[in-house]
TrEMBL record:
Pfam families in UniProt: V-ATPase_H_N
GO CC terms of this entry: lysosomal membrane; vacuolar proton-transporting V-type ATPase, V1 domain
Highest taxon of the lineage: Eukaryota
Name the UniProt record assigns to this protein: V-type proton ATPase subunit H
InterPro entries, sorted: ARM-like, ARM-type_fold, ATPase_V1-cplx_hsu
Native organism: Caerostris extrusa
PANTHER family reported for this sequence: V-TYPE PROTON ATPASE SUBUNIT H
GO MF terms held by the record: proton-transporting ATPase activity, rotational mechanism
């Protein structure tokens, strides 16, 4: 019963992802603006040997694709190196405007076809680790778009999952972002909506008093959409009896 319900949640998540993205406030508005900016000049990365010729050819062609069919074709053509190149590029780009542009391109690529997450996990060892350093970036947009991608990589494969230490680090980061002054709060709640569908992540979040923080946050003046998304987070945790019992203590159920 629970497994069937969770499968339904996953399907709903994929179907409404773009709708949620469209109402995700500041993150969406800035993403739309960045998409309209000129493409990245990858030639300096090739000339300075950050990437090789094959990697340059892939990433340059990748950013000019316009349709899902074109992107599928590029991925197929560079099938032995495409996902490894994406991870390498994420780790070597340090110009803020360029990493912003590339992360949006990558997030759109994943949202367009969530099965690509499976390929990421199959082609790259612990792919989420390539994005963790971006959570320390001083740029709020970069941190939050990176967190979206990390979340998808963490939930996109049923077997390959981060270590408990990696999981706790990311959940703790999300927890610190949970405050009513955060202009990217809707993005934070969306990450939690996905992560808390996985029982191991639910328990880790409970152990760091994350559920209590959600309850406290709901008593503040956050906007209705944020209230809805955090209420969903509470609801999905009730599929774990231990967490459901904790919610009963707060008279939530």
């Amino acid at each position: 019963m629970e497994q069937e319900a969770m499968q339904t949640f996953v399907m709903l998540s994929e179907n409404v992802e773009q709708k949620v993205w469209d109402i995700a406030g500041k993150l969406w508005r800035k993403s739309k603006k960045i998409r309209e900016e000129p493409p990245i000049d990858w030639l300096p990365y090739l000339e300075n040997r950050f990437i090789n010729q094959k990697e340059f050819s892939f990433v340059n062609a990748f950013q000019y694709t316009k349709t899902k069919e074109e992107r599928d074709l590029i991925i197929t053509y560079f099938k032995d190196s495409a996902f490894k190149t994406i991870v390498k590029v994420v780790q070597c780009v340090y110009v803020v405007k360029e990493i912003e542009k590339f992360l949006i391109l990558l997030d759109d690529f994943v949202v367009e076809d969530m099965s690509r997450i499976k390929h990421f996990n199959e082609e790259v060892e612990e792919p989420w680790k390539a994005f963790i350093h971006l959570l320390h970036c001083s740029n709020n947009f970069v941190r939050n778009i990176a967190s979206r991608i990390i979340t998808k990589l963490m939930v996109g494969h049923k077997i390959k999952r981060p270590s408990s230490r990696q999981t706790e680090f990311f959940l703790e980061w999300l927890k610190t972002e949970m405050n009513e002054e955060n202009k990217y709060l809707l993005s934070v709640s969306r990450c939690l909506q996905r992560l808390l569908q996985v029982d191991d992540y639910r328990l880790s979040f409970m152990n760091m008093s994350g559920i209590v923080q959600i309850i406290n946050l709901l008593t503040t003046g956050i906007k209705p959409q944020a209230q809805y998304q955090f209420c969903f987070c509470l609801w999905v945790t009730t599929f774990n009896s231990q967490l459901a019992a904790e919610l009963e203590e707060y008279a939530i159920l």
